[in-house]
Amino acid sequence: MAKRSRFKDFLWRHSAGIAFLVMVAFVALIGFVGYTYVVITKKFDSSRRWDLPSRIYSDATASRSIYRISSIPISSSARCRC
């Protein structure tokens, strides 16, 4: 009869404990994901969620381009060969 490796023998003897630890880790992961979902949902579903973005994006700052598009040289290899 072929001798089993020590690792396989260890897994066979401790399979119930390993399965239990995997289940506990899975339940802990599900709990962490649920907790994170609740915290993030409460943070962004508040009545003041649009307060900060509306103040930032309502500023009447003039934006202009620094470079003119026609002044940028384009090499012949970068042009479209349609």
Secondary structure elements and pairings:
Blueprint: H1 6-13, H2 15-44, H3 51-57
Any overview of this molecule?
With 82 residues, the protein is an all-alpha fold. The protein has a domain at 7-45. Helices cover 55% and strands 0% of the residues. It has 3 helices and no strands. The longest helix has 30 residues, at 15-44. The protein is elongated. The N and C termini lie far apart (71 Å).
Summarize this, please?
By secondary structure, this protein is an all-alpha fold.
- Compute the average pLDDT: 75
Q: What profile does the largest beta sheet have? A: none
The radius of gyration over CA amounts to 30 Å
How many helices in DSSP terms? Answer: 3
Secondary-structure-derived class: mainly alpha
Strand-residue proportion: under 5%
Spans of at least 5 consecutive residues whose pLDDT stays below 50 are: none
- Separation of termini? 71 Å
Instruction: Give the H and E element order.
Output: HHH
The percent range for helix content is: 40-55%
Q: Tell me the total number of β-strands.
A: 0
Question: In one word, what is the shape?
Answer: elongated
